[in-house]
Amino acid sequence: MSQLIDGKAAAARVLAEVKAEVERLHAQDVEPALAVVLVGDDPASHVYVRNKVLRAGEVGIRSLEYRLPAEASADEVLEVVAALNADPAVHGILVQLPLPKHIDEVRVLEAIDPGKDVDGFHSENVGGLSQGRNVLTPCTPAGCMRLLHDTLGDLSGKHAVVVGRSNIVGKPMAALLLAANCSISVVHSRSVEPEKLCRLADIVIAAVGRPRLIDAGWIKPGAVVIDVGINRIEEDGRSRLVGDVDFAAVQQVTAAITPVPGGVGPMTIAMLMHNTVLAARQQTGQAIQEAR
Ligand SMILES: NC(=O)C1=CN([C@@H]2O[C@H](COP(=O)(O)OP(=O)(O)OC[C@H]3O[C@@H](n4cnc5c(N)ncnc54)[C@H](OP(=O)(O)O)[C@@H]3O)[C@@H](O)[C@H]2O)C=CC1
Ligand SMILES: Nc1nc(=O)c2c([nH]1)NC[C@@H]1CN(c3ccc(C(=O)N[C@@H](CCC(=O)O)C(=O)O)cc3)C=[N+]21
User: Fold this and answer.
1) Which residues line ligand 1 (CB under 6 A)?
2) How high is the ipTM of this complex?
3) 57 labelled as ligand-binding?
4) Which among 105, 169, 214, 264 is the best mutation to test ligand 1's pocket, defined by most ligand atoms within 8 Å of the CB?
5) Å from CA of 193 to ligand 2 middle
6) 55 alpha carbon to ligand 1 midpoint, in Å?
């Protein structure tokens, strides 16, 4: 029987740690605060942002929401980011992606103060991750690492295959697995017979955005599978959320697997809260030391 990796329970453990750390910061008169910037009216983005704000409240993190219309210019978004960078009461800044097509995402992400970049998408943090420096790390891959450590303990020597090479999931995921002493392969849309490479893996991370692409033929018996995919599909006349992995088939062969929903998604939000507290501690550490 395959183990079901419970992302909600793991997220609750991270959030309990975060809450305790927030209380320590409150006792030092630091109120960790996260600003979320949302441009346009994509319904899925609104749901994510609402969940983030709710979770923040539960652990005592102050959250601020900045909503701009879909027609907002890049300069208007950059103005909001500049104001948040300059505000010492704001410790974390998240600009919800995707941005409307007319706005250059890279330009906006690069404008965020790297110390407040709780998504870990700024090039300074990306570079730091690849060099093994202690920087803010992208939330989804960081959440996957927690789930893997909880399930397998030490990952040294494991062969991990990451399916997908996006800047927000696939690439930072590969960097974190390498840092944890895995051997890594990254497969993508130009890979020849990706399923053959995938079948060699002890660990599979699916971050493709294709509903149920990965079936049992891609998986070595006894592998651990982490499904990052979040795909809303219509099936049997209703709307449902499915991953990039064909869960029913793949769980027959795995040692452990994450479900969708209830797997990586809740961990992403928990790691965002974790990063906000880290950022608050780093920004105020100096002030706390001086007050002593
Ligand atoms: N749970 C969570 O917290 C989060 C979930 N997600 C979900 O994760 C999934 C991936 O997101 P994201 O990384 O942003 O997606 P992107 O669309 O940015 O990247 C998808 C990647 O998959 C590759 N790919 C596409 N088709 C195939 C194929 N047939 N075989 C192999 N590789 C393929 C693409 O290759 P190429 O580069 O060649 O185009 C690309 O590298 C989505 O379902 C998204 O909703 C995303 C963020 C957070
Ligand atoms: N700057 C930025 N940072 C992000 O981290 C970011 C982003 N933009 N844009 C969109 C993606 C997607 N993402 C998710 C977070 C939580 C769930 C989540 O909690 N999912 C629940 C289900 C939620 C539901 O029912 O819809 C679950 O999987 O159990 C999903 C997806 C963060 N992203």
Assistant:
1) 140, 163-166, 168-170, 187-191, 194, 207-210, 213, 228-231, 244, 264-265, 268
2) 0.98
3) no
4) 169
5) 29
6) 25
pLDDT tens-digit profile of 48-105?
A: 889 999 999 999 999 999 999 999 999 999 999 999 999 999 999 999 999 999 999 9
Q: Which domains does the chain have, with CATH numbers?
A: 29-113 (3.40.50.10860), 139-265 (3.40.50.720)
3-state SS of the chain? Answer: CCEECCHHHHHHHHHHHHHHHHHHHHHCCCCCEEEEEEECCCHHHHHHHHHHHHHHHHHCCEEEEEEECCCCCHHHHHHHHHHHHHCCCCCEEEECCCCCCCCCHHHHHHHCCHHHECCCCCHHHHHHHHHCCCCCCCHHHHHHHHHHHHHHCCCCCCEEEEECCCCCCHHHHHHHHHHCCCEEEEECCCCCCHHHHHCCCCEEEECCCCCCCECHHHCCCCCEEEECCCEEEEECCEEEEECCECHHHHCCCCCEECCCCCCHHHHHHHHHHHHHHHHHHHHHHHHHHHHC
